[in-house]
Amino acid sequence: MVKLNKIYTRTGDDGTTGLVDGSRLPKHAARIDTIGAVDEANSALGLAAVTLAGGPHAEPLYRIQNDLFDLGADLATPAEEGDDFAPSDMVLRVVAAQVSWLETAIDALNARLEPLTSFVLPGGSEAAARVHLARAAVRQAERTMTAMAAAEPVNPQALSYINRLSDYLFVLARVANDDGKGDVKWVPGANR
User: Fold this and answer.
1) What is the distance, to the nearest Å, from the Cα of residue 187 to the centroid of all Cα atoms in its chain?
2) What's the half-sphere exposure (Cβ side, CA atoms, 13 Å) at 68?
3) Burial of 171 (0-12, 13-18, 19+ CB in 10 A)
4) Are the beta carbons of 150 and 144 closer than 8 angstroms?
5) Taking a C-beta distance cutoff of 8 angstroms, is the pair 183, 117 a contact?
6) This model's pTM is above 0.90
7) Backbone angles phi, psi at 26, to 5 degrees
């Protein structure tokens, strides 16, 4: 359980931040950059959820925002030697069930849509545009996470989750565009 009585601690004034295991890293470290990118994606999702409030698609975004906090906690807990990334009472990890939930949600949304005949531009309705913005933020988080994974161990389920999340948001943006009828299609070379 998290209990925050005081918001500022001054412990980061030296340019470092603490991890779950008590260690500290520079605020510009790859792990901290990745946690920050996930936080930015979560904030973009919050804006999209507000736009979709009152409809059936806001609640799944709130669930995903919670999962992104799980992801942040996962990333803030460095792996120990031989770590299999299994969760425990003391260690929060993204798990396969969270990835499976996204896949099921993608399939359900995609069943409503006609197949694409062109790439779509990130726009259409305001709701779709905000979901596309969140999708782009998630892709940025994925890029920082894979860069980090090239240098140190990252939970494979966390990598799958962030990859699947951008797919979910792409499909949700199409649904928010009147089930794809409001998609703005890319016309290659249209302005030559």
Assistant:
1) 29
2) 30
3) buried
4) no
5) no
6) yes
7) -60, 145
